[in-house]
């Protein structure tokens, strides 16, 4: 699969029963890049990232992460996954949730304690460390889920709409951190349906009805057709797909 790409998908298809969710997905994501999947709800983004994360298996085609075929159990410790729905224990405190998942990832007690402080500061939840998660707002739960995804310093991050319900100031801070992680070599796959967030990614794939309809940076996608905005480009590429 080569040494330049961290994530590779080749002719990936996914069926749920007779429903064809993903259709011949081809994708290459280099190491140390933030790659965005932009598309409306129901277009297949979540199914696609679950295959990359090893949570789902494709019906056909090949998926490689870090040079190894997915799904692969031994790779799970090298992937940080943040789902759309928060996988948290409501009766436990934020600290207890992080300690539990840190131990699953094989971190030692001292490392768990240190990383807990670091990730909670990043998501601006340090003051809520010992608060039961059941008392958290929806936005606070999203932030804690992100903290858990990066707890073990994985080389690959798969984030499914990570900033939904998060205020603009904190969202800016989180994106700064994602850029810092990418600069350190972390590969980040993020889904979104928000145009300004997609614009922050190094590269994008526009997705519609289970297909990738265009790839490139936000600027490339616009300049290719003379669009003045990413939204205009998305409408154009989506319309061209319908013609086919």
Give an overview in words.
This protein is of the alpha/beta class and 244 residues long. It has one domain: 3-Layer(aba) Sandwich (Rossmann fold). The chain contains 8 helices and 10 strands. Strand 4 and strand 5 form a beta hairpin.
Characteristic key phrases:
globular, 8 helices, six-stranded mixed β-sheet, four-stranded antiparallel β-sheet, 244 residues, alpha/beta, Rossmann fold, 35% helix
Question: What topology emerges from the helices and strands here?
Answer:
Elements: E1 5-16, E2 19-30, E3 34-38, H1 45-53, E4 60-65, E5 68-69, E6 79-82, H2 94-104, H3 109-122, H4 138-149, E7 156-160, H5 168-183, E8 187-192, H6 195-198, E9 203-208, E10 211-216, H7 218-223, H8 230-243
Helix pairs in contact: 2-3
Order of helices and strands: EEEHEEEHHHEHEHEEHH
Sketch the major β-sheet: 6 strands, mixed
Q: What is the straight-line distance between the termini?
A: 30 Å
Provide the helix percentage: 25-40%
CATH class: Alpha Beta
CATH architecture: 3-Layer(aba) Sandwich
Strand content: 25-35%
Mean pLDDT comes to 92
Strand order of the largest sheet: 6-7-8-3-9-10
Structural class: alpha/beta
What would you give as the CATH superfamily? P-loop containing nucleotide triphosphate hydrolases
Give the C-alpha Rg: 18 Å
Number of helices: 8
Here the CATH topology equals Rossmann fold
Based on CA inertia axes, which overall geometry fits? globular
Q: Find the count of extended strands (DSSP E, 2+ residues).
A: 10
- Unreliable spans are none
Q: How many domains is the backbone divided into? A: 1
